[in-house]
Amino acid sequence: MTEMAQEHYPNEVGTSLVGCYSDDGFEASVLDLAPLSPDSKGQRTSFYRGTVGLRKFFAKLRQTFSGKRHYVGEWHSHPDGAPTPSGTDDRNQLDITMDTKTNCPECILIIVGGPNFNEMGVFVYSRKQGKITLYLMQNEEI
């Protein structure tokens, strides 16, 4: 994530997260990143994650791993900014969580930010509990 963020600096960038859940559903593992869709658009303070090719990517992923790896959330960068979700980020993640077609009732959001992308925030958006902050490391804590 950090490498991709640095490649696209000073614009935001991001992709979907690939992972799996424990058998009891209480733990998620982020194992990989989906490719950056060619229709994605990053600007200094905004990012639109495109969709071209993702349906095919996730279908092949499910087949290759017998349904054990799939979409678990999103990540994106906040160049030189705090690794905390904006109001738009919150709305987008809650929309994904509430959309039964995505089958992701607990959606992960990772944001990398700060100088040199050395700060990170990890959040879960839950249908039942709303936004939960799992991890927040900002520069003053380093």
Would you identify the CATH H-level superfamily? Cytidine Deaminase, domain 2
Overall number of structural domains: 1
How far do the termini sit from each other?
A: 19 Å
Largest sheet: 6 strands, mixed
Architecture (CATH level 2) name: 3-Layer(aba) Sandwich
The count of β-strands is: 8
Spell the H/E element sequence: HEEEEHEHEEE
Describe the structure.
- With 142 residues, this protein is an alpha+beta fold.
- It has one domain: 3-Layer(aba) Sandwich (Cytidine Deaminase, domain 2), CATH 3.40.140.
- It is built from three helices and eight strands.
- The strands form two sheets. It has a six-stranded mixed β-sheet. A two-stranded antiparallel sheet has the order 3-4.
- The mean pLDDT is 93.
Brief sketch in words of this structure:
The protein has 142 residues and is an alpha+beta fold. Helix content is 21%, strand content 39%.
Tell me the layout of helices and strands.
Blueprint: H1 2-8, E1 14-21, E2 28-33, E3 41-43, E4 46-48, H2 54-64, E5 70-79, H3 87-98, E6 106-114, E7 119-126, E8 130-137
Parallel strand pairs: 5-6
Antiparallel strand pairs: 1-2, 1-5, 3-4, 6-7, 7-8
Provide keyphrases for this structure:
142 residues; alpha+beta; Cytidine Deaminase, domain 2; six-stranded mixed sheet; two-stranded antiparallel sheet; 21% helix
